[in-house]
Design goal:
The protein is α+β, with helices and mostly antiparallel strands and about 180 residues long. The protein is about 30% helix and about 20% strand. It has 4 helices and 9 strands, in the order H-H-E-E-E-E-E-E-H-E-E-H-E. A 7-stranded antiparallel β-sheet has the order 8-7-3-4-5-6-9, with helices on one face. It has a two-stranded antiparallel ribbon with strand order 1-2. A hairpin with a 4-residue loop joins strand 4 and strand 5. The longest helix is centred in the C-terminal third of the chain and has 20 residues.
């Protein structure tokens, strides 16, 4: 299985069980805690944490990410467009804004992409790209995950096209960021 919304293909995983028991936001928080926890504990506190649950969170995890404790989203966008962006995990956050029209178009595209199969290449320890869309209505949360985004071997043309749409959306949100 490729990319799915939390209510979709995750239903067969431990995360899916957490989703059914505790709700999507609790499962997302648990997943983030797992990502940010290493042998030494939680990663350092974010100097400019967003004040509420972001509308969009974009995360790019590199290959061999399991041993890292410095992973953070590359972009978090609040419903009003306020955003925090990082060039990479160690970079200082930059505050800014993403235009409302870009957010509206991105929400529409996420809703379309959650229904397509992006495939899963036969590879291990590769990177992962994630777009989390969490509007105010909790039952509308969508989480798109592309495993090994740089690989296309073994994927159908349709899966490759779906991955390109995902990559284009990821880039469009990043490139729409305007620093304050």
């Amino acid at each position: 299985m490729g990319t799915a919304g939390v209510a979709g293909h995750f239903g067969r995983t431990a995360l899916g069980s957490a989703v059914r028991r505790h709700g999507r936001r609790a499962a997302l928080a648990a997943m983030c805690a797992v990502l940010l926890t290493g042998a030494g504990g939680f990663a350092g506190a974010d100097p400019t944490p967003p004040p509420s649950v972001p509308l969009f969170t974009l995360t790019a995890m590199p290959a061999d990410w399991q041993s890292r404790t410095d992973l953070r989203p590359v972009l978090q966008v609040q419903p009003d467009g306020r955003a925090v962006k990082r060039a990479d995990a160690g970079a200082q956050p930059v505050n800014g804004k993403v235009p409302a029209d870009v957010l509206a178009a991105a929400a529409t595209e996420v809703k379309a992409l959650v229904t397509v199969d992006m495939g899963t290449p036969d590879a291990t320890d590769k990177g992962t790209s994630i777009i989390d869309y969490m509007p105010e209505a909790r039952d509308q949360d969508l989480h798109l995950i592309v495993y090994a985004p740089e690989l296309t071997d073994g994927l159908t043309d349709e899966q490759k096209a779906s991955r390109k749409r995902f990559d284009d959306l990821f880039a469009r949100l990043l490139n729409a960021f305007v620093p304050s």
